[in-house]
Amino acid sequence: MIADERRRMAELIESLTPGQLYTPSLCEGWTVHEVAAHLCAPWIFGARRIVPAVLRHGFRVHRANAELVRDLAVDLTAEEIGLQLRANAEFVFNPPIVGPLGQLTDLQVHGQDICRPLGLTRDLVPERMLLSLEFLVGPRARGSFVPRGRLDGLRFVATDLDWAGGEGLLTVRGTGEALLLALTGRPVVLGELSGSGTAALHARLTA
What we know:
GO molecular function, one term: metal ion binding
Radius of gyration: 16 Å
Distance between the termini: 34 Å
Protein name: TIGR03083 family protein
Organism: Actinoplanes regularis
Helix content: 40-55%
Oligomer: single chain
Pfam family, one: MDMPI_N
Domain Mycothiol-dependent maleylpyruvate isomerase metal-binding: 3-82
């Protein structure tokens, strides 16, 4: 699944114009080009450089990545990123705690980080969304992909998938894609959600 997502990302990146590449992504502070370059970090930097950065930033993955990604984006053109993703599609990266599900989730979320600001449609594979949604409401994502406290008291229900997760009396409903982006802190999808827990989630994502 990870290998296929990397190949899909290569196709996407190779299809973009220079103007699209320098458009701000949904990943705050990063352009589309920087998000794309970040996906090559596992085999270029390796665990010896990535894991210490994550630890330095208290398992805040985005901050650790920001420390590493900008130089990488300068070094790699879009064409080179596409070649890197294809050549290393089968690369195994098993970071502590989050494991392979962290990689699968990263690829799916960053694909939408790129496509949504550009007005592009990128369908996610339901089976893969289910794995990532379950990962995001579980303990291994807490403190890295999902800050502590974001999910407290909330239960999430997908309207287009047979999935619900989280513990709480307040409910947040939306498509699997919208929940994936909301759980990882993208406020752009808040208007696509419904339920008694949306106000609480809105406050946490926009604080």
